Amino acid sequence: FKYLARAYELETKWVEDGYxxxxxxxxxxxxxxxxxxxxxxxxxxxxxxxxxxxxxxxxANPRIAVASSIVGRLINDLASKRxxxxxxxxxxxxxFSLSKxxxxxxxxxxxxxxxxxxxxxxxxPTTVSMHLLVRILNITRSVDALYQDGEAFTHxxxxxxxxxxxxxNPIPVY
Length: 174
Hints:
Keywords: Lyase, Magnesium, Metal-binding. This is Terpene synthase metal-binding domain-containing protein. Pfam families: Terpene_synth_C (PF03936). By secondary structure, this protein is mainly α. It has helices at residues 2-17, 23-33, 36-42, 52-59, 63-80, 87-96, 100-123, 130-146, 160-168. It contains nine helices and no strands. The protein is globular. The termini are far apart.
């Protein structure tokens, strides 16, 4: 959580200073302000699979965790239009002199690359439990679902119909 707090502090400094970060700076900080902290916290309570070495592995920013964080950050940026520090869309447009549509296309390309990285890491043999890798995959899927039709993390009404279908009116299984 210190990592997350420092990242938010940096965003605050950027806003106060009127500073527009480069894409590299934005991504570096965005890893902390997206789903990355959820990954570490989600391992708590998984004693059977998440030993100390698993936490050490995650804190070393493995490729799957970085990809999950980037996917989460970019999906959030497209849905919520993070105007307070520009967000990825504005950073791409400014740094590379891109049109809005070209910047959106580039962000979707980066999201696709992140999903490819996640899939490759899931399929690659690793020293950590597959249960932990699947946890990372599922958190990324959840973030994707939350922002699919808008910014449902803040505006939960967006998910109302889906939740009703899942929990109040589920399809009977025979």
